[in-house]
Amino acid sequence: MALAAEAFMTQLAAAEPWPENAALYQQLKDEQILLSDNASSLAVQAFLQMCNLPVRVVCRANAEYMSPSGKVPFIHVGNQVVSELGPIVQFVKAKGHSLSDGLDEVQKAEMKAYMELVNNMLLTAELYLQWCDDVTVEEITHLRYGSPYPWPLNRILSYQKQWEIRRKMKAIGWAGKSLEQVLEDVDQCCQALSQRLGTQPYFFNKQPTELDALVFGHLFTILTTQLTSDELSEKVKNYSNLIAFCRRIEQQYFEGHDKDSSSSATSRSAKRSLLR
Amino acid sequence: MAAPMELSCWGGGWGLPSVHPESLTVMAYAKFSGAPLTVNAINNCWRAPKGEVPILISEDTVISQPAKILNFLRKQKYNADYELSAKQGADTLAYIALLEEKLLPALLHTFWVEAENYCSVTKPWFASRIPFPLSLYLPGKMSREALNRILLTRGGPPLYSLTEVEAQIYRDAKECLNLLSKRLGTSQFFFGNRPSTLDAFVFGFLAPLYKVCFPRVQLQEHLKQLPNLCRFCDDILSCYFRLAVSGHSPAGQDTVDANLQKLTQLVNKESNLIEKIRLSLFLCRWTTTFVRVLSIPLES
Q1: Distance of alpha carbon A190 from alpha carbon A9, whole angstroms
Q2: What DSSP designation does A262 have?
Q3: Closest partner residue to A112 among B93, B152, B179, by Cβ?
Q4: What sequence ranges are listed for the domain Mitochondrial outer membrane transport complex Sam37/metaxin N-terminal (chain A) (predicted)?
Protein backbone atom coordinates (compact mmCIF):
# COMPACT_ATOMS: atom_id res chain seq x y z
CA MET A 1 0.00 0.00 0.00
CA ALA A 2 2.78 2.34 0.94
CA LEU A 3 4.60 1.52 -2.29
CA ALA A 4 1.55 2.32 -4.42
CA ALA A 5 1.10 5.61 -2.60
CA GLU A 6 4.70 6.49 -3.23
CA ALA A 7 4.48 5.71 -6.93
CA PHE A 8 1.43 7.96 -7.12
CA MET A 9 3.27 10.75 -5.32
CA THR A 10 6.22 10.45 -7.69
CA GLN A 11 3.91 10.84 -10.66
CA LEU A 12 2.33 13.91 -9.10
CA ALA A 13 5.79 15.32 -8.45
CA ALA A 14 6.89 14.80 -12.02
CA ALA A 15 3.86 16.61 -13.37
CA GLU A 16 4.73 20.11 -12.08
CA PRO A 17 7.90 22.18 -12.39
CA TRP A 18 9.71 23.55 -9.36
CA PRO A 19 7.74 26.55 -8.04
CA GLU A 20 9.21 29.86 -6.93
CA ASN A 21 7.78 29.72 -3.42
CA ALA A 22 9.30 26.43 -2.25
CA ALA A 23 10.03 26.57 1.47
CA LEU A 24 12.36 24.65 3.75
CA TYR A 25 11.30 24.40 7.37
CA GLN A 26 13.65 24.02 10.30
CA GLN A 27 13.71 25.00 13.95
CA LEU A 28 14.59 28.49 15.15
CA LYS A 29 18.11 29.20 14.07
CA ASP A 30 19.55 31.16 16.91
CA GLU A 31 17.84 29.79 19.98
CA GLN A 32 16.50 26.33 19.33
CA ILE A 33 18.15 24.30 16.62
CA LEU A 34 20.67 21.65 17.67
CA LEU A 35 23.87 20.46 16.02
CA SER A 36 22.49 17.38 14.25
CA ASP A 37 19.35 19.10 12.93
CA ASN A 38 21.40 22.06 11.77
CA ALA A 39 23.74 19.73 9.90
CA SER A 40 20.85 17.95 8.17
CA SER A 41 19.21 21.23 7.25
CA LEU A 42 22.41 22.70 5.85
CA ALA A 43 22.94 19.53 3.80
CA VAL A 44 19.53 19.90 2.17
CA GLN A 45 20.10 23.60 1.53
CA ALA A 46 23.45 22.84 -0.07
CA PHE A 47 21.90 20.13 -2.23
CA LEU A 48 19.16 22.45 -3.48
CA GLN A 49 21.71 25.18 -4.18
CA MET A 50 23.78 22.73 -6.18
CA CYS A 51 20.71 21.84 -8.23
CA ASN A 52 19.98 25.57 -8.74
CA LEU A 53 16.57 25.27 -7.20
CA PRO A 54 15.41 28.30 -5.23
CA VAL A 55 14.14 27.70 -1.72
CA ARG A 56 13.55 30.00 1.23
CA VAL A 57 14.27 28.89 4.75
CA VAL A 58 11.44 29.29 7.23
CA CYS A 59 12.14 28.88 10.93
CA ARG A 60 9.37 27.50 13.11
CA ALA A 61 9.51 26.33 16.68
CA ASN A 62 7.37 23.26 15.95
CA ALA A 63 9.07 22.25 12.70
CA GLU A 64 9.82 18.80 14.09
CA TYR A 65 6.16 18.13 14.71
CA MET A 66 5.06 19.47 11.35
CA SER A 67 7.38 17.12 9.53
CA PRO A 68 5.75 13.96 8.10
CA SER A 69 8.50 11.73 9.43
CA GLY A 70 9.26 13.64 12.61
CA LYS A 71 12.64 14.77 11.37
CA VAL A 72 13.83 18.11 10.10
CA PRO A 73 14.34 19.60 7.64
CA PHE A 74 11.37 19.22 5.38
CA ILE A 75 10.44 21.06 2.22
CA HIS A 76 7.06 22.31 1.17
CA VAL A 77 6.86 22.34 -2.61
CA GLY A 78 3.56 23.01 -4.35
CA ASN A 79 1.17 20.89 -2.33
CA GLN A 80 3.67 18.25 -1.28
CA VAL A 81 5.74 17.90 1.85
CA VAL A 82 8.91 15.82 1.84
CA SER A 83 11.35 15.38 4.72
CA GLU A 84 14.96 14.22 5.04
CA LEU A 85 17.71 14.28 2.45
CA GLY A 86 17.11 10.81 0.94
CA PRO A 87 13.44 11.32 0.01
CA ILE A 88 14.14 14.93 -1.04
CA VAL A 89 16.79 13.70 -3.50
CA GLN A 90 14.25 11.22 -4.92
CA PHE A 91 11.61 13.94 -5.13
CA VAL A 92 13.93 16.34 -6.91
CA LYS A 93 14.95 13.56 -9.28
CA ALA A 94 11.29 12.94 -10.14
CA LYS A 95 11.08 16.60 -11.11
CA GLY A 96 13.94 16.08 -13.53
CA HIS A 97 16.94 17.46 -11.61
CA SER A 98 19.68 15.13 -10.56
CA LEU A 99 23.32 15.54 -9.58
CA SER A 100 24.32 11.89 -9.87
CA ASP A 101 23.16 11.03 -13.37
CA GLY A 102 26.66 11.22 -14.73
CA LEU A 103 27.94 8.48 -12.42
CA ASP A 104 28.24 4.87 -13.47
CA GLU A 105 26.76 2.02 -11.44
CA VAL A 106 29.85 1.33 -9.36
CA GLN A 107 30.24 5.03 -8.52
CA LYS A 108 26.59 5.26 -7.53
CA ALA A 109 27.08 2.29 -5.19
CA GLU A 110 30.11 4.04 -3.69
CA MET A 111 28.22 7.27 -3.26
CA LYS A 112 25.38 5.55 -1.43
CA ALA A 113 27.86 3.67 0.75
CA TYR A 114 29.65 6.89 1.77
CA MET A 115 26.33 8.60 2.50
CA GLU A 116 25.49 5.72 4.83
CA LEU A 117 28.90 6.09 6.44
CA VAL A 118 28.19 9.73 7.23
CA ASN A 119 24.75 8.85 8.60
CA ASN A 120 26.01 5.87 10.54
CA MET A 121 29.03 7.51 12.14
CA LEU A 122 28.90 11.30 11.99
CA LEU A 123 25.20 11.80 12.57
CA THR A 124 25.07 9.19 15.34
CA ALA A 125 28.12 10.76 16.99
CA GLU A 126 26.45 14.18 16.87
CA LEU A 127 23.31 12.74 18.44
CA TYR A 128 25.40 10.99 21.08
CA LEU A 129 27.25 14.16 21.92
CA GLN A 130 24.17 16.29 22.27
CA TRP A 131 21.91 13.83 24.09
CA CYS A 132 24.09 11.33 25.92
CA ASP A 133 27.04 13.41 27.07
CA ASP A 134 25.89 14.83 30.40
CA VAL A 135 27.88 18.05 30.27
CA THR A 136 26.61 19.01 26.81
CA VAL A 137 23.07 17.98 27.70
CA GLU A 138 22.96 20.18 30.79
CA GLU A 139 24.69 23.22 29.36
CA ILE A 140 23.42 23.32 25.82
CA THR A 141 20.76 20.85 24.80
CA HIS A 142 18.22 21.23 27.58
CA LEU A 143 18.44 25.01 27.33
CA ARG A 144 18.07 25.13 23.59
CA TYR A 145 15.65 22.35 22.71
CA GLY A 146 12.57 23.55 24.55
CA SER A 147 13.43 27.26 24.60
CA PRO A 148 10.37 28.52 22.66
CA TYR A 149 8.02 26.89 25.14
CA PRO A 150 7.15 27.89 28.71
CA TRP A 151 8.12 25.93 31.77
CA PRO A 152 7.41 23.04 32.42
CA LEU A 153 6.76 22.11 28.81
CA ASN A 154 10.30 22.90 27.75
CA ARG A 155 11.75 20.50 30.27
CA ILE A 156 9.22 17.76 29.52
CA LEU A 157 9.83 17.87 25.76
CA SER A 158 13.55 17.87 26.29
CA TYR A 159 13.53 14.87 28.60
CA GLN A 160 11.17 13.00 26.33
CA LYS A 161 13.46 13.49 23.35
CA GLN A 162 16.48 12.52 25.42
CA TRP A 163 14.81 9.30 26.51
CA GLU A 164 13.93 8.48 22.91
CA ILE A 165 17.47 9.08 21.67
CA ARG A 166 19.01 7.10 24.51
CA ARG A 167 16.74 4.13 23.69
CA LYS A 168 17.95 4.28 20.13
CA MET A 169 21.60 4.45 21.20
CA LYS A 170 21.09 1.42 23.40
CA ALA A 171 19.46 -0.53 20.55
CA ILE A 172 22.36 0.09 18.19
CA GLY A 173 25.02 -0.59 20.78
CA TRP A 174 26.32 2.96 21.27
CA ALA A 175 25.09 3.33 24.85
CA GLY A 176 28.13 1.56 26.21
CA LYS A 177 30.58 3.78 24.36
CA SER A 178 32.56 6.45 26.12
CA LEU A 179 33.03 9.93 24.68
CA GLU A 180 36.61 9.11 23.68
CA GLN A 181 35.45 6.10 21.68
CA VAL A 182 32.82 8.21 19.93
CA LEU A 183 35.40 10.85 19.06
CA GLU A 184 37.67 8.12 17.74
CA ASP A 185 34.85 6.91 15.50
CA VAL A 186 34.43 10.48 14.23
CA ASP A 187 38.15 10.58 13.53
CA GLN A 188 37.99 7.30 11.62
CA CYS A 189 35.07 8.56 9.57
CA CYS A 190 36.83 11.84 8.76
CA GLN A 191 39.95 9.92 7.81
CA ALA A 192 37.95 7.76 5.42
CA LEU A 193 36.29 10.84 3.88
CA SER A 194 39.62 12.62 3.60
CA GLN A 195 41.24 9.65 1.89
CA ARG A 196 38.34 9.28 -0.49
CA LEU A 197 38.37 13.00 -1.34
CA GLY A 198 42.12 13.13 -1.83
CA THR A 199 43.10 16.20 -3.86
CA GLN A 200 39.95 16.35 -5.97
CA PRO A 201 37.58 19.31 -5.72
CA TYR A 202 34.55 17.08 -5.08
CA PHE A 203 34.10 13.44 -4.18
CA PHE A 204 33.31 12.45 -7.75
CA ASN A 205 35.80 14.72 -9.40
CA LYS A 206 34.41 17.66 -11.28
CA GLN A 207 30.75 17.86 -10.26
CA PRO A 208 29.25 17.93 -6.80
CA THR A 209 26.72 15.28 -5.87
CA GLU A 210 24.39 14.72 -2.92
CA LEU A 211 27.30 13.15 -1.06
CA ASP A 212 29.18 16.47 -1.24
CA ALA A 213 26.10 18.28 0.07
CA LEU A 214 25.74 15.84 2.98
CA VAL A 215 29.41 15.91 3.95
CA PHE A 216 29.47 19.71 3.70
CA GLY A 217 26.38 20.02 5.90
CA HIS A 218 27.84 17.93 8.68
CA LEU A 219 31.45 19.09 8.59
CA PHE A 220 30.63 22.78 8.27
CA THR A 221 28.23 22.60 11.19
CA ILE A 222 30.76 20.75 13.33
CA LEU A 223 33.43 23.30 12.49
CA THR A 224 31.31 26.34 13.20
CA THR A 225 29.19 25.38 16.18
CA GLN A 226 30.31 26.36 19.63
CA LEU A 227 30.07 23.43 22.03
CA THR A 228 31.32 22.92 25.56
CA SER A 229 34.66 21.74 24.26
CA ASP A 230 36.49 21.84 20.96
CA GLU A 231 37.27 18.14 20.73
CA LEU A 232 34.80 17.38 17.97
CA SER A 233 35.87 20.21 15.70
CA GLU A 234 39.53 19.44 16.38
CA LYS A 235 39.00 15.97 14.95
CA VAL A 236 37.77 17.48 11.70
CA LYS A 237 40.47 20.16 11.63
CA ASN A 238 43.15 17.47 11.44
CA TYR A 239 42.24 16.98 7.79
CA SER A 240 43.14 20.03 5.75
CA ASN A 241 41.55 18.81 2.52
CA LEU A 242 38.18 18.55 4.28
CA ILE A 243 38.47 22.15 5.54
CA ALA A 244 39.37 23.33 2.03
CA PHE A 245 36.41 21.36 0.68
CA CYS A 246 34.00 23.08 3.08
CA ARG A 247 35.41 26.49 2.27
CA ARG A 248 35.13 25.84 -1.45
CA ILE A 249 31.47 24.86 -1.25
CA GLU A 250 30.68 27.75 1.04
CA GLN A 251 32.24 30.24 -1.36
CA GLN A 252 30.68 28.75 -4.42
CA TYR A 253 27.15 28.15 -3.26
CA PHE A 254 26.46 30.33 -0.25
CA GLU A 255 28.35 33.55 -0.44
CA GLY A 256 26.39 34.89 -3.39
CA HIS A 257 23.44 35.52 -1.09
CA ASP A 258 22.35 38.55 1.00
CA LYS A 259 23.36 38.72 4.59
CA ASP A 260 19.91 38.07 6.01
CA SER A 261 19.09 35.11 3.80
CA SER A 262 19.15 31.46 4.63
CA SER A 263 22.82 30.72 4.21
CA SER A 264 23.90 32.19 7.55
CA ALA A 265 27.24 30.57 6.92
CA THR A 266 29.02 33.84 7.42
CA SER A 267 26.79 34.91 10.29
CA ARG A 268 27.45 31.69 12.12
CA SER A 269 31.17 31.99 11.84
CA ALA A 270 30.84 35.55 13.09
CA LYS A 271 28.90 34.25 16.07
CA ARG A 272 31.64 31.76 16.73
CA SER A 273 34.35 34.40 16.76
CA LEU A 274 32.23 36.62 19.02
CA LEU A 275 31.79 33.85 21.54
CA ARG A 276 35.49 33.34 21.70
CA MET B 1 54.60 -17.14 19.18
CA ALA B 2 51.26 -15.50 19.79
CA ALA B 3 49.16 -16.56 22.76
CA PRO B 4 46.48 -19.13 21.93
CA MET B 5 43.18 -17.51 21.01
CA GLU B 6 39.77 -18.98 21.58
CA LEU B 7 36.57 -17.82 19.93
CA SER B 8 33.19 -18.57 21.44
CA CYS B 9 30.37 -18.24 18.98
CA TRP B 10 27.12 -19.78 17.83
CA GLY B 11 27.45 -23.08 16.02
CA GLY B 12 26.78 -24.01 12.41
CA GLY B 13 24.12 -25.58 10.29
CA TRP B 14 22.87 -25.81 6.73
CA GLY B 15 26.44 -26.11 5.48
CA LEU B 16 27.69 -23.02 7.31
CA PRO B 17 30.30 -22.92 10.08
CA SER B 18 27.99 -20.58 11.99
CA VAL B 19 24.49 -19.24 11.41
CA HIS B 20 25.10 -16.03 13.36
CA PRO B 21 26.23 -13.18 11.06
CA GLU B 22 28.71 -11.60 13.47
CA SER B 23 30.28 -14.91 14.48
CA LEU B 24 30.62 -15.85 10.82
CA THR B 25 32.30 -12.52 10.04
CA VAL B 26 34.96 -13.11 12.69
CA MET B 27 35.54 -16.71 11.62
CA ALA B 28 35.90 -15.67 7.98
CA TYR B 29 38.38 -12.92 8.85
CA ALA B 30 40.43 -15.34 10.93
CA LYS B 31 40.62 -17.71 7.97
CA PHE B 32 41.57 -14.93 5.57
CA SER B 33 44.32 -13.56 7.78
CA GLY B 34 45.59 -16.96 8.88
CA ALA B 35 44.93 -16.35 12.58
CA PRO B 36 45.01 -19.62 14.55
CA LEU B 37 41.69 -19.53 16.36
CA THR B 38 40.14 -22.38 18.27
CA VAL B 39 36.44 -22.12 17.68
CA ASN B 40 34.05 -23.20 20.41
CA ALA B 41 30.42 -23.47 19.50
CA ILE B 42 28.42 -22.14 22.39
CA ASN B 43 25.96 -24.50 23.87
CA ASN B 44 25.69 -22.77 27.17
CA CYS B 45 25.31 -19.01 27.14
CA TRP B 46 25.97 -18.62 30.83
CA ARG B 47 29.59 -19.54 30.31
CA ALA B 48 30.19 -16.64 27.95
CA PRO B 49 31.52 -13.89 30.27
CA LYS B 50 29.24 -11.05 29.26
CA GLY B 51 26.60 -12.93 27.37
CA GLU B 52 27.53 -11.19 24.11
CA VAL B 53 28.51 -13.36 21.22
CA PRO B 54 31.01 -13.75 19.53
CA ILE B 55 33.74 -13.45 22.17
CA LEU B 56 37.49 -13.78 21.73
CA ILE B 57 39.52 -14.92 24.72
CA SER B 58 43.29 -14.64 24.57
CA GLU B 59 45.16 -15.17 27.85
CA ASP B 60 43.47 -12.63 30.08
CA THR B 61 41.94 -10.42 27.45
CA VAL B 62 38.26 -10.76 26.64
CA ILE B 63 36.97 -8.91 23.59
CA SER B 64 33.41 -8.88 22.46
CA GLN B 65 32.32 -7.05 19.31
CA PRO B 66 33.31 -8.04 15.76
CA ALA B 67 34.94 -4.67 15.00
CA LYS B 68 36.99 -4.81 18.21
CA ILE B 69 37.92 -8.46 17.67
CA LEU B 70 39.16 -7.66 14.18
CA ASN B 71 41.18 -4.73 15.53
CA PHE B 72 42.75 -7.02 18.11
CA LEU B 73 43.67 -9.59 15.44
CA ARG B 74 45.24 -6.84 13.34
CA LYS B 75 47.35 -5.73 16.29
CA GLN B 76 48.52 -9.33 16.67
CA LYS B 77 49.80 -9.02 13.09
CA TYR B 78 46.98 -11.02 11.52
CA ASN B 79 46.05 -8.42 8.97
CA ALA B 80 44.05 -9.27 5.87
CA ASP B 81 44.13 -5.64 4.67
CA TYR B 82 47.83 -4.89 4.31
CA GLU B 83 47.64 -4.87 0.53
CA LEU B 84 44.81 -2.35 0.41
CA SER B 85 45.40 1.29 -0.51
CA ALA B 86 44.16 4.12 1.70
CA LYS B 87 41.15 4.71 -0.57
CA GLN B 88 40.24 1.03 -0.47
CA GLY B 89 40.42 1.13 3.31
CA ALA B 90 38.01 4.08 3.27
CA ASP B 91 35.71 2.19 0.88
CA THR B 92 35.71 -0.76 3.30
CA LEU B 93 34.40 1.45 6.09
CA ALA B 94 31.73 2.94 3.83
CA TYR B 95 30.46 -0.42 2.57
CA ILE B 96 30.34 -1.84 6.09
CA ALA B 97 28.19 1.15 7.09
CA LEU B 98 25.96 0.43 4.07
CA LEU B 99 25.54 -3.19 5.18
CA GLU B 100 24.66 -2.18 8.73
CA GLU B 101 22.19 0.49 7.75
CA LYS B 102 20.46 -1.12 4.79
CA LEU B 103 20.85 -4.87 5.01
CA LEU B 104 20.98 -5.63 8.71
CA PRO B 105 17.37 -4.55 9.55
CA ALA B 106 15.96 -6.88 6.90
CA LEU B 107 18.29 -9.68 8.01
CA LEU B 108 17.13 -9.28 11.61
CA HIS B 109 13.54 -9.21 10.43
CA THR B 110 13.92 -12.42 8.39
CA PHE B 111 15.54 -14.28 11.28
CA TRP B 112 13.85 -12.92 14.36
CA VAL B 113 10.70 -10.98 13.63
CA GLU B 114 8.95 -12.71 10.72
CA ALA B 115 6.61 -14.98 12.67
CA GLU B 116 6.76 -18.08 10.50
CA ASN B 117 10.54 -18.00 10.18
CA TYR B 118 11.07 -17.36 13.86
CA CYS B 119 8.73 -20.08 15.10
CA SER B 120 9.73 -22.80 12.70
CA VAL B 121 13.45 -22.23 12.23
CA THR B 122 15.22 -19.67 14.41
CA LYS B 123 13.66 -20.35 17.80
CA PRO B 124 14.01 -24.15 17.73
CA TRP B 125 17.60 -23.89 16.49
CA PHE B 126 18.74 -21.47 19.18
CA ALA B 127 16.65 -23.10 21.91
CA SER B 128 18.31 -26.45 21.22
CA ARG B 129 21.69 -24.92 21.93
CA ILE B 130 20.76 -23.10 25.13
CA PRO B 131 20.28 -24.97 28.40
CA PHE B 132 16.90 -25.27 30.03
CA PRO B 133 15.40 -23.06 31.54
CA LEU B 134 17.24 -20.29 29.65
CA SER B 135 16.00 -21.72 26.36
CA LEU B 136 12.51 -20.59 27.27
CA TYR B 137 13.61 -17.00 27.75
CA LEU B 138 16.67 -16.15 25.66
CA PRO B 139 15.34 -16.64 22.11
CA GLY B 140 12.35 -14.46 22.99
CA LYS B 141 14.67 -11.78 24.36
CA MET B 142 16.82 -11.85 21.22
CA SER B 143 13.68 -11.53 19.12
CA ARG B 144 12.46 -8.54 21.12
CA GLU B 145 15.86 -6.87 20.84
CA ALA B 146 15.83 -7.34 17.07
CA LEU B 147 12.33 -5.84 16.79
CA ASN B 148 13.36 -2.98 19.02
CA ARG B 149 16.37 -2.20 16.91
CA ILE B 150 14.36 -2.21 13.70
CA LEU B 151 11.64 0.04 15.09
CA LEU B 152 13.96 2.51 16.78
CA THR B 153 16.23 2.95 13.79
CA ARG B 154 13.64 2.83 11.05
CA GLY B 155 10.24 3.44 12.50
CA GLY B 156 8.85 6.93 12.76
CA PRO B 157 7.37 8.40 15.89
CA PRO B 158 4.90 8.43 17.46
CA LEU B 159 3.46 5.02 16.72
CA TYR B 160 6.49 3.00 15.62
CA SER B 161 4.34 0.63 13.59
CA LEU B 162 6.03 -2.42 12.11
CA THR B 163 3.92 -2.83 8.98
CA GLU B 164 4.88 0.54 7.55
CA VAL B 165 8.50 -0.19 8.18
CA GLU B 166 8.57 -3.74 6.73
CA ALA B 167 8.09 -2.75 3.12
CA GLN B 168 10.71 -0.04 3.43
CA ILE B 169 13.39 -2.24 5.01
CA TYR B 170 13.00 -5.01 2.46
CA ARG B 171 13.21 -2.50 -0.34
CA ASP B 172 16.37 -1.02 1.13
CA ALA B 173 17.86 -4.50 1.59
CA LYS B 174 17.18 -5.45 -2.02
CA GLU B 175 18.74 -2.20 -3.17
CA CYS B 176 21.76 -2.90 -0.98
CA LEU B 177 22.15 -6.39 -2.49
CA ASN B 178 21.96 -4.88 -5.98
CA LEU B 179 24.63 -2.31 -5.09
CA LEU B 180 26.92 -5.01 -3.67
CA SER B 181 26.44 -7.10 -6.77
CA LYS B 182 27.33 -4.17 -9.03
CA ARG B 183 30.38 -3.37 -6.93
CA LEU B 184 31.59 -6.99 -6.96
CA GLY B 185 31.07 -7.39 -10.71
CA THR B 186 33.01 -10.33 -12.02
CA SER B 187 35.97 -10.24 -9.64
CA GLN B 188 36.56 -12.95 -7.12
CA PHE B 189 36.73 -10.64 -4.10
CA PHE B 190 35.89 -7.01 -3.55
CA PHE B 191 39.47 -5.78 -3.72
CA GLY B 192 41.42 -7.86 -6.20
CA ASN B 193 42.39 -11.45 -5.66
CA ARG B 194 42.85 -11.55 -1.93
CA PRO B 195 39.96 -11.45 0.54
CA SER B 196 39.92 -8.62 3.07
CA THR B 197 37.81 -7.25 5.92
CA LEU B 198 35.00 -6.18 3.60
CA ASP B 199 34.78 -9.69 2.16
CA ALA B 200 34.51 -11.08 5.69
CA PHE B 201 31.65 -8.72 6.56
CA VAL B 202 29.76 -9.28 3.32
CA PHE B 203 30.18 -13.05 3.66
CA GLY B 204 29.05 -12.91 7.29
CA PHE B 205 25.85 -11.07 6.37
CA LEU B 206 25.04 -12.86 3.12
CA ALA B 207 25.84 -16.50 3.84
CA PRO B 208 23.15 -17.08 6.52
CA LEU B 209 20.61 -15.39 4.25
CA TYR B 210 21.71 -17.57 1.38
CA LYS B 211 21.91 -20.94 3.05
CA VAL B 212 19.42 -21.16 5.90
CA CYS B 213 16.11 -22.68 4.77
CA PHE B 214 13.24 -20.41 5.73
CA PRO B 215 9.55 -20.74 4.93
CA ARG B 216 9.29 -16.99 4.09
CA VAL B 217 12.12 -16.28 1.69
CA GLN B 218 11.59 -13.05 -0.24
CA LEU B 219 15.06 -11.69 0.45
CA GLN B 220 16.66 -15.06 -0.21
CA GLU B 221 14.88 -15.25 -3.58
CA HIS B 222 16.26 -11.84 -4.46
CA LEU B 223 19.77 -12.87 -3.43
CA LYS B 224 19.59 -16.00 -5.57
CA GLN B 225 18.93 -13.82 -8.59
CA LEU B 226 22.35 -12.22 -8.12
CA PRO B 227 24.65 -15.04 -9.28
CA ASN B 228 27.91 -13.26 -8.54
CA LEU B 229 27.05 -12.85 -4.85
CA CYS B 230 26.02 -16.53 -4.60
CA ARG B 231 29.24 -17.53 -6.31
CA PHE B 232 31.16 -15.31 -3.87
CA CYS B 233 29.62 -17.09 -0.84
CA ASP B 234 30.14 -20.56 -2.32
CA ASP B 235 33.76 -19.80 -3.20
CA ILE B 236 34.60 -18.70 0.32
CA LEU B 237 32.84 -21.71 1.82
CA SER B 238 34.65 -24.17 -0.38
CA CYS B 239 38.06 -22.48 -0.24
CA TYR B 240 38.30 -21.45 3.37
CA PHE B 241 35.92 -23.56 5.34
CA ARG B 242 35.93 -27.07 3.93
CA LEU B 243 38.71 -28.11 1.62
CA ALA B 244 42.39 -27.41 2.14
CA VAL B 245 43.97 -24.95 -0.29
CA SER B 246 47.73 -25.06 -0.82
CA GLY B 247 49.55 -22.67 1.47
CA HIS B 248 46.61 -22.32 3.86
CA SER B 249 45.52 -24.54 6.74
CA PRO B 250 46.56 -28.19 6.24
CA ALA B 251 43.90 -30.90 5.92
CA GLY B 252 44.78 -32.38 9.29
CA GLN B 253 43.72 -29.21 11.08
CA ASP B 254 40.16 -29.57 9.75
CA THR B 255 39.72 -33.09 11.10
CA VAL B 256 41.23 -32.01 14.41
CA ASP B 257 38.75 -29.14 14.55
CA ALA B 258 35.89 -31.49 13.69
CA ASN B 259 36.91 -33.93 16.43
CA LEU B 260 37.30 -31.12 18.90
CA GLN B 261 33.84 -29.87 18.04
CA LYS B 262 32.34 -33.34 18.49
CA LEU B 263 34.06 -33.72 21.85
CA THR B 264 32.90 -30.27 22.95
CA GLN B 265 29.34 -31.17 21.99
CA LEU B 266 29.49 -34.42 23.94
CA VAL B 267 30.87 -32.61 26.98
CA ASN B 268 28.20 -29.96 26.67
CA LYS B 269 25.45 -32.56 26.41
CA GLU B 270 26.79 -34.26 29.52
CA SER B 271 26.96 -31.02 31.42
CA ASN B 272 23.41 -30.24 30.33
CA LEU B 273 22.30 -33.59 31.70
CA ILE B 274 24.17 -32.99 34.94
CA GLU B 275 22.52 -29.59 35.27
CA LYS B 276 19.09 -31.08 34.70
CA ILE B 277 19.75 -33.72 37.37
CA ARG B 278 21.02 -31.04 39.71
CA LEU B 279 17.95 -28.92 39.12
CA SER B 280 15.59 -31.81 39.73
CA LEU B 281 17.47 -32.78 42.94
CA PHE B 282 17.24 -29.20 44.14
CA LEU B 283 13.51 -29.17 43.43
CA CYS B 284 13.09 -32.46 45.34
CA ARG B 285 14.95 -31.12 48.34
CA TRP B 286 12.98 -27.88 48.29
CA THR B 287 9.70 -29.78 48.11
CA THR B 288 10.62 -32.02 51.06
CA THR B 289 11.71 -29.03 53.15
CA PHE B 290 8.48 -27.25 52.30
CA VAL B 291 6.42 -30.28 53.29
CA ARG B 292 8.37 -30.58 56.54
CA VAL B 293 7.81 -26.91 57.37
CA LEU B 294 4.11 -27.23 56.66
CA SER B 295 3.75 -30.35 58.82
CA ILE B 296 5.35 -28.72 61.92
CA PRO B 297 2.14 -26.94 63.05
CA LEU B 298 0.20 -30.20 62.48
CA GLU B 299 2.54 -32.13 64.75
CA SER B 300 2.52 -29.56 67.47
Answers
A1: 36
A2: S
A3: B179
A4: 41-161
